[in-house]
Write a structure and sequence with these properties.
about 75% helix, mainly alpha
Amino acid sequence: MSEIQTFDWGTWAAWVENLSQQEKTSLVARVAYELTIAARESYEPATRGVIDPGRLRALNEVMHRLTRRTLSTVSQENWSEAEFWEALLELSEQGGCVNDLVIAASIASRTRVGA
């Protein structure tokens, strides 16, 4: 079974809930960073073109929510972690980029938070 099939969003959200505000902000930024790498896969090599515009658009929408989350975390106007990550998962599923989100979240959670 792949990491994507076994990723537990409930456990993820509970783990994130227990992080400090600074750690949460750092984690969200790391997930966003990993998604920028995934977005590059939609580019047509050696051109300015895009070979997968739907995926790129979906990733952009997820990135929009992640960057908004960073702003709201800093200003303390938050949804619960469970609500936020569930909404992000739904958006990713609708846009066809859930695998990218799972990989990004998995990589970000293995990276030292706050570093």
